[in-house]
Prior knowledge:
By secondary structure, the chain is an alpha/beta fold. The protein has helices spanning 25-28, 41-48, 65-76, 87-96, 111-118, 135-151, 160-167, 184-195, 204-215, 249-268, 277-307, 313-318, 320-328; strands at residues 3-7, 34-38, 82-84, 101-103, 125-127, 155-157, 178-180, 218-221, 226-229, 234-237. The strands form three sheets. Strands 5-6-7-8-9-10 form a six-stranded mixed beta sheet, sandwiched between helices. The chain has a two-stranded antiparallel sheet with strand order 1-2.
Amino acid sequence: xxxxxxxxxxxxxxxxxxxxxxxxxxxxxxxxxxxxxxxxxxxxxxxxxxxxxxxxxxxxxxxxxxxxxxxxxxxxxxxxxxxxxxxxxxxxxxxxxxxxxxxxxxxxxxxxxxxxxxxxxxxxxxxxxxxxxxxxxxxxxxxxxxxxxxxxxxxxxxxxxxxxxxxxxxxxxxxxxxxxxxxxxxxxxxxxxxxxxxxxxxxxxxxxxxxxxxxxxxxxxxxxxxxxxxxxxxxxxxxxxxxxxxxxxxxxxxxxxxxxxxxxxxxxxxxxxxxxxxxxxxxxxxxxxxxxxxxxxxxxxxxxxxxxxxxxxxxxxxxxxxxxxxxxxxxxxxxxxx
Length: 338
């Protein structure tokens, strides 16, 4: 029978001789040393009460964000993923995956110049995962937002990027190629700053639309259901998802958004999409957000079905290729970019 060992106080200093298979464990131990209790069903039930239940309404934080955002973009179909970070973080991030292009430019006198000079090489930008809240790095991020807007690049702002936007919401106001991705707490803070009042209890869809209209941007409020609005139209993605909220899931969503935001803006100008009803009704940012949310949620469910409570972000990433085909169909040899 399995036994549970409970160490009581300080063990005596005598030399221990472990019991043989024929010895009685309780007679072998001395009072105050070690006690043994069978792992009965009642004891196991008592232990299970101490384990937190999985729930759909928890939020989490994570610091290894750049890798998850970049690898998710690559798994989704991006040709290259470049991570711009600090010098101290560059080697650890590069060691995660050789596919990453890692540039240690997020500090120093030439930081802004180096990044601005590289912008013509990029098709889409995800700003925020792993950024941190150092004042100098936030100043660099603010300057880059203006440069990104000037070049008309699709932009996703997530994580610590949302902290910057909450401090200075006007820097993205009116930019129609940006998608903000606040979680519930980040949304409440931004809403309160911009509208000078707390969100309405029990009306998240209305609140997201109201804030999006005020800022004239697309907002994706992440949660048990994902709520998306550009201030005019609103969409909800509530496909089944697991209660397992592993660290890195928001970063996966951000990376996928970066890819879909670019794809949808390219598709918008294609001849066969000009009269497409959904593109005309919702526009590229809403469709990008719906696509990324659907893919992320299905990857979460697929990973949870296999791994249950032990599901990690890496398990979700492993599902991207298969789930992508399940949702959007098999890859075509000729597509909208041919």
